[in-house]
Automatic annotation (TrEMBL):
Signal sequence bounds: 1-21
Keywords: Signal
Coiled coil: none
Protein name: DUF4384 domain-containing protein
Domain DUF4384: 56-136
PANTHER family linked to this entry: S-LAYER-LIKE PROTEIN
Keyword Cell membrane: no
Highest taxon above the source species: Bacteria
Membrane among keywords: no
PEGA domain mapped to chain residues: 197-264
Originating organism: Deinococcus antarcticus
Length: 367
């Protein structure tokens, strides 16, 4: 049965059988003209312009039909689904004319039509039968509209034998050189099941939030099902913790697991800038020598003083210290962050009382 909504539904086509007195059956059970008139008709589905193949459509796919004649003729299109329901595709209540000029084609749906033709079940071997006639045919005796809402008429009778018998009634009175048929085959496959998988996200923080492929999936420490198979970016966030950014691959029919330990954000108490004299060299030397309290002079480690000065400068630019300066064999190292950027600060002692202060920055971009 045809149904009209935003798209039209095309029932799949089956095989034809017995013909009437004038028409006869080919080896493929197609009703054919026993003579070879100079009238010819060709019908094709859009996935097989050659007409020599048996293309596959899945239920729900759009389909279009093309019929060509070598003489001015009236073209009639029929389908038979594997369940035996026979439908008259053309003419119908949506396409008022089925007259085709010689050497031209008629397409259904035609360009500009505000509807589409979709394949519906059941699955199986299918067929479109085209009948061309030099004179218009009266199909009222073999097909009828089931209701005023139906766009396609249904042929009386069932299956290939029913259609062949019905068509024989129509073509028997015609001259043998005034009609011709052709058939197009295609296969209908069931809708392919969507592969989905599940994902468990474990973290060391209760209340963490998970973003999968940019979408808020929900809380961590939960298993999520019915997720499309594929590889996606994943981000896990929690207040007071550094965001985790990575990728996860989901496979159909399986549960993928990801476990993440979020790292707390290390904050440092605000640093009170040391008094400055306005002379950069004197200020730096002062930081190296430390503060004078009375007659006692505390001498700082020059490498650590250089590290502290660099950290203060970066903090004034909006960076946050996430790893306090740690001593190394040659100096100090610290880590700072700003947005999606991570900055590593390294101070090294070099020969001849030289200090080397280096910064290395890594920025993550989302795409």
């Amino acid at each position: 049965m045809k149904k009209l909504s935003n798209a039209l539904t095309l029932s799949t086509l089956g095989l034809l059988s017995v013909a009437g007195a004038q028409g006869k059956l080919s080896a493929q059970s197609i009703i054919v003209n026993p003579t070879m008139p100079d009238l010819s008709v060709s019908v094709r589905v859009d996935r097989d312009p050659s007409g020599n193949q048996n293309p596959t459509y899945r239920i729900g796919d759009q389909i279009a039909l093309d019929a060509t004649v070598n003489r001015d003729a009236y073209v009639y299109l029929f389908d038979v689904d594997p369940a035996g329901v026979v439908t008259q595709i053309l003419p119908n209540r949506l396409s008022s004319s089925n007259f085709v000029k010689a050497g031209t084609s008629v397409r259904f749906p035609a360009p500009g039509d505000r509807f589409q033709y979709n394949v519906s079940g059941p699955a199986g071997q299918s067929k479109v039968l085209a009948l061309a006639s030099l004179t218009p045919l009266n199909l009222d005796q073999i097909s009828e509209f089931k209701s005023a809402q139906e766009s396609f008429a249904v042929v009386k009778g069932s299956g290939q034998a029913g259609l062949a018998q019905a068509l024989s009634i129509v073509v028997n009175p015609l001259p043998q050189n005034s009609w011709m048929t052709d058939t197009a085959f295609y296969n209908v496959a069931p809708v392919q099941a969507v592969q989905t998988g599940s994902l468990y996200i474990g973290t060391n923080v209760q209340g963490a939030t998970v973003y999968l492929n940019g979408q808020n999936l929900g809380a961590a420490n939960v298993t999520y099902a019915n997720l499309g198979a594929g590889t996606y970016p994943i981000r896990i966030t929690a207040p007071g913790y550094v965001d985790y950014n990575g990728r996860v691959t989901l496979s159909g029919g399986t549960i993928s697991n990801i476990s993440v330990d979020l790292t707390p954000v290390i904050t440092q108490a605000p640093v009170t800038p040391a008094p400055t004299s306005g002379n950069l060299l004197l200020d730096f030397l002062g930081s190296l020598l430390g503060n004078v309290a009375g007659t006692t002079v505390t001498v700082n480690d020059p490498a650590r003083a250089a590290m502290d000065q660099k950290v203060r400068a970066l903090q004034s630019q909006g960076y946050t210290l996430t790893r306090t300066p740690a001593a190394t064999a040659t100096g100090y190292v610290a880590t700072m962050t700003k947005g999606y950027s991570t900055l590593t600060v390294t101070v090294e002692r070099q020969p001849n009382r030289i200090l080397s202060v280096q910064t290395s920055e890594t920025t993550l971009y989302r795409y």
